[in-house]
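Kindly go through the following sequence and its backbone structure tokens. Advise at your convenience whether the structure tokens fit the sequence:

___
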Amino acid sequence: MASPSDQTAKIIDGKAIAHTIRSEIAEEVRDLSEKHGKVPGLAVVIVGGRKDSQTYVTMKRKACAEVGIKSVDVDLPEDVSEADLITKVHELNSDPDVHGILVQLPLPKHINEENVLSAISIDKDVDGFHPLNIGKLAMKGREPLFLPCTPKGCLELLKRSGITIKGQRAVVVGRSNIVGLPVSLLLLKADATVTTVHSHTKDPEAIIREADIVIAAAGQACMIKSDWIKPGAAVIDVGTNAVSDTSKKSGYRLVGDVDYAEACKVAGCITPVPGGVGPMTVAMLLRNTLDGAKRVIGQ
């Protein structure tokens, strides 16, 4: 079914789109500062010294500085008790200069993630994972205060690339709490006809082949082959998988859940990995923080 090999998909440049969004946010932050003498504040809480978590947190703090959002850094030791972590979250809940709270996951094994995330005030839940926010997302006619950043970024990529969602068949590959489930709910809210493909789905290729929009979030390197993709489909690849590559200094390279090189010959448009969804996740975190601040500042 693949179309002629000289066809190349339009590349959805997440880096460029995220840059535009950051510029819009920076302008709004300046505006708030000039009118009210206040700027949005984001508390980024990290527990322990995991290298990957440290990298993500540094990136988020740097992104805040670039758009004028005040970053409140909370670095806690690996052996901090769950009770002390929750006490810290409560302190941030009552700090008027903090408009968003992000607890970097995963947390150490001795801490119950659900207890910590549920302790974050729904008004400051910029990650969008509070059960009330997810619950409202699942209900017709209800609007959550915040949408989870990666799913929100996926839909923003589609919208800013001029891709119609309403009435289209969308297939989400994966059903995680962080991406698969909320992105399915968001697509449903945008009037797509949504199917979720997961590890127990029979004949996933046939289902994916029907999709006008594919959101790949399974965490399996190059799982989705080009002949699984309907010609002209929009493909958003959320996967970030490290595969060994001796030509790289690090010894590995990052690939998505989609066989990118081959899929480019069939899809209508596609996000690269890296440089697709990743930059959008951080941009949406900044947007959520700004939105949280705007509800409070100037009221």
In short: The chain has ten helices and eleven strands.
